[in-house]
Design a protein that fits this description.
The chain is an all-alpha fold and 107 residues long. The chain has six helices and no strands. The longest helix is centred in the last third of the chain and has 12 residues.
């Protein structure tokens, strides 16, 4: 699969805003949508279980988003688009859930 600039359809909407960062469940969901990631890809990317990811994206859950996840998300926001795409493609391409997702998590 060739990586193209269209891999991140929503990237321009959020990524270049200086005020956007992941700090809670809602911004985490926005980040997931921005990077076109689904539940299975998040499990692989962050090495956590599906139930944990579901708790992280469920805004009504009392479980808070953990700091290491927040830091990783915000670090990815500092990457150039091409570097972020390359990282996600390399990390997820040899799995049964290749990136980008056809049904990413929405806001």
């Amino acid at each position: 699969m060739e990586i193209t600039s269209s891999s991140f359809p929503n990237k321009k909407d959020i990524i270049y805003r200086d005020d956007f960062s992941v700090h809670d469940k809602l911004t985490f969901r926005q980040w997931c949508k921005l990077f076109s990631l689904d539940i299975d890809q998040l499990c692989i990317l962050f090495n956590v279980s599906k139930p944990t990811i579901y708790k992280y994206i469920d805004v009504s859950s009392n479980v808070k988003l953990r700091k290491p996840i927040i830091i990783c998300c915000n670090l990815m926001l500092t990457f150039d688009r091409e570097d972020a795409e390359r990282y996600l493609f390399q990390r997820l391409s040899n799995t049964s859930h290749p990136w980008p997702s056809r049904s990413p998590i929405g806001c």
